[in-house]
Amino acid sequence: MKLDETLIVERQGRYFLLTPELKRLIPEDFFYAGTYLGKVRRGVFFPSFNLLAMIVERKEANKIIVDDKTEWLFIVGRDVFKRGILQVVGSRRKDAHTLVTNKRGECLGFGRILHNLDEGKGKPEVAAKNVSDVGDFLRRERRLEH
Amino acid sequence: MSNKQFFLDRYSRLGWKYVPVKLKQAIRINTNNAKEADIIRRLESRRIKLEPIPFIPHAYWICESPFSVGATTEYLLGYYSIQEAAAQIPATLFTDLEDKMVLDVCAAPGGKTAQLADIMRNTGVIFALDIKKRRLTALSNHLERCHVKNTIVRHMDARHASHLKIKFDRILLDVPCSGNFATDKDWFRRRTIEDVQRNAKLQRQILTEAAGILRDDGEIVYSTCSLEPEENELNIDWAIKHFNVQAEPIVCYGETAGTEIFGKQLSSSVASCRRIWPGQTQGFFVCKLKKASG
Q1: Which of chain B's residues have a Cβ under 8 Å away from the Cβ of A14?
Q2: Cα nearest neighbour of A69 on chain B
Q3: What is the ipTM of this complex?
Q4: Confidence (pTM)
Q5: In this structure, how many other beta carbons lie within 10 angstroms of the beta carbon of residue B260?
Q6: Which chain B residues are closer than 8 Å to A26 by Cβ?
Q7: Fewest beta carbons less than 10 Å away: which of A28, A77, B201, B254?
Q8: Structural contact between residues B259 and B265, judged by C-beta atoms closer than 8 angstroms
Q9: B26-82: which CATH number, 3.90.700.10, 3.30.70.1170, 3.50.50.60, 1.10.230.10?
Q10: Positions of B marked active-site
Q11: How does pLDDT run across A20-59, given as a tens digit for each residue?
């Protein structure tokens, strides 16, 4: 899917990518529409999982590919440990944001690299801090139930 | 006579004998997002035992699972949805959904909306409405998780759907109803015939609004998870007599609906509706209405 700017609409700080058919019909007071791209809160953009899934297909995207156990831990909100990393694509620098994917290349969320990944010995085991993961869908459901 | 006995007597007069029911959890594969065979293989590798539901495409019962099927990576990536088996039937009854203008009233929490989008292959447009703003969040989360792209969600009472000023090709009326005992263990204690009558009245108001914004040759699928004829056969009979619609034959799980209810003779086309007594699924009623040309 391409990000055609003419098809992007904003509502209360949330951004949506529409199809041409939706764009023709979109009312001003809609609640949700098309593909949710993310929201701006206090001047910071928080990408949606749909947007992350679009970015992960791009060659230039930073990615950490993790093993099965780390995948499971990551989607319950845990950080990425060095021993769970199978491959790093793109930036290995401290503070770089990176997508986290499983072995199949499916985007599980994103994190922030905590220290230069080229530096080996003496560095802490946690390699990337979990910023956002798809387990958030489940946490949102639970919040709504309560 | 106890409340429970009152309702059981009614079911008996409709030809069904009460049996306690234990429902199996069911899932539906979102075929737009994943290949069905791959997802089944992945879930089975997680020691989740599945059984295909013979009367619904892409649907499986969960026979055994070491953990919640709502917590797997596959679920979180939108490859499948958790949706009770009978609740999966209504969206499958429409003809030719692709590229259509579709209205889903009372849409939250969004299981059927996501199913419609999947069948439509994200083409056309779905307007999904719900009267409760809080429920729109659950609906939107569901659409986001399932990568639905063709839907506009609005906070709106179904009885005001004509305010959209759009004529629809297909309308899903999964209307608010009294529910049934299979999904609510306190059902017989909590429900009264007055609740049923109140819901039936609301359902007629929604049917009236839907009939007015349906295009000629358009289809309404009407469904409830109620077993009470006032919310089902009697409402459909009323709609056939008041609007330019006919009940269309449908091929799906369930029994032919009755045309004589508690001594009242109904239109013969009500027999095209399906009544599903609790057993393999929860209790359900489903019907397809088609508007005649002109």
Answers
A1: none
A2: B73
A3: 0.95
A4: 0.96
A5: 10
A6: 152
A7: A28
A8: yes
A9: 3.30.70.1170
A10: 225
A11: 999 999 999 999 999 999 999 999 999 999 999 999 999 8
